[in-house]
Amino acid sequence: MNYESLIREDLEKLKQIRKKQKLVRDEKRIQFLILLKSGEAKTQKEAGLQVGWKMRQSQKIWRIYRERGVGGVLEKKEGRGFGKLSSVEISGLNQYLREFGARSLAEIQQYLKESVQVEYTIGGVSDLCLRLKIKLKTARPANYKKDAAAVNTYKKTLVAYERVMRMKKLNLKMRCESGREPS
Hints:
mainly alpha
């Protein structure tokens, strides 16, 4: 391919454009075009390797240049956000989960369908939960033989035991500070 004739901008213009770039990504893209235009690189693969790309990335940038020119190569993508939901809807989902919880992804899916009128597949709800760091919160299973009176007794003795241990620790600390050897 004769890149010198296929690239419409002249070499000096490309170098000026490269100097104006603030992002390394954009600078590399223009450098790629400069290498092809100047003949330093005979193929897309060679030019791509010189700027640190694999063949596929080189092909992609060349395709973008052919279709949209230098402006297309320097175009920035819009941020995606969180898919179908706005930030208000996401905070509404978080509020719902705090108040009522959800036992399954299907419950979350149903909530989204009814309140926000947005349809998600179960896989989509799963991905949404991963992105939002929502985890299923379940209580630990309790033993069916658990005796409530025994639990209360244990809690009372535990508090008393902790109080005694704090007092011993405090006495030991005071003895060490006064210079007496602990017994």
